[in-house]
Amino acid sequence: MKEKITWSDFVEEYILEKRLRTASEWSYRKVCGNFYNYLGPSVLPVDVTRRHALSWRKNVLKIERRQEATWNNKASHMNALYNYAMKRKLFEIKENPFSETKVKAGKKKKKTMRQTQISHAYRVMEAREEEELRLGVLASRNALFPAWFWLTMLDTLYYTGMRQNQLLHLRVGDIFLDENIIRLGNEGSKNHHEYALPVVSYLKPRLELILKKAGERGLKKNDLLFNIPVFTGKNENITEDMGSPPVRSFFRRLSRECGFTVTSHRFRHTLATEMMRRPEQNLYITRNVLGHSSMVSTLEYVERDLDAERMVLEKQFAALKRNKKINSEDEEG
Predict the structure, then answer these.
(1) Contacts of 219 (CB under 8 A, 6+ apart)
(2) Coiled-coil ranges per the record (predicted)?
């Protein structure tokens, strides 16, 4: 009798077959682990029924009170795993238990930051940078150290709108300051597309600084640029997926210092939202900057401009009032 495949073997078999990014591999393992913890050790992949999937959905949405988008993410991962199992005949099942288990998710407003919040975050980091310059080796070392590095990262996110994963995949040779261009490779791109972004004048000084320091540390063109351990001296022998833990720690600490949430994606959303206040002028440019394949994704950043709507209504009613007054005067005359 064929031995039943375990959850661990199931997800690892899928990862081995597919060409996934490190972050995606982590996601599949996490979701699969969540489902295993919910089911308990007695239920193996081949034993899962649609009832198991729907029961888990109810638990996630009703008991854990998670968002619909969270469940849909889990369902997508598990649906892909079971489609793979059926295609490769890893075990015998009649139907994919996660087929059509997604729920309709309400459209939420993109999370952005106000310009006052961005300015405050910069003031916090610039104060840290001044302190480190003043105290040297005596400066405190926490998740915000070294400040010059994190300020360079903030500038790059703020002035380009690139994703965090794209930033972490930037290599020394991807920066062309003589041409004012940053090349984004397909390895860090969500849609696997390679494209370029312009370098604005406000970003250039920080990029010059990090490239100078990278050269001093012997980094070559193919080496990762935003590689924090290289600049702290803690551990230079690291893998290419190093970035997430120190970056998460940085944003967590900065958010605590600021008193509001600061994330890499909020910089991206903020830039896109600001550009899309005038979609008739900036739609195509915004799409290119964000690296979207579809214009539909870019249009999600168009928000209602209540001030503009108010002005239109003011003009409309002013015209109506004028016409009413003219008509009234004509009747009296």
Answers:
(1) 172, 225, 227, 230
(2) none
Active-site residue flag, 193: no
Question: Residue 97, preceding bond cis, omega within 30 degrees?
Answer: no
CA-to-CA dists, residue 219 to 30, 164, 168, 227, 239, angstroms:
34, 21, 15, 10, 15
Model pTM above 0.85 = no
Place of tokens 């540390």: 217
Is 301 noted as a catalytic residue in this protein?
A: yes
pLDDT over threshold 70, residue 84: yes
For domain 115-299, the CATH class is mainly alpha
Q: Does the annotation count 163 as an active-site position? A: yes
In this model, does residue 313 exceed pLDDT 50? yes
Q: What is the pLDDT of residues 112-133, one digit of tens each?
A: 899 999 999 999 999 999 999 8
- Residue ranges per domain, the chain? 7-88, 115-299, 306-333
Catalytic annotation present for 169: no
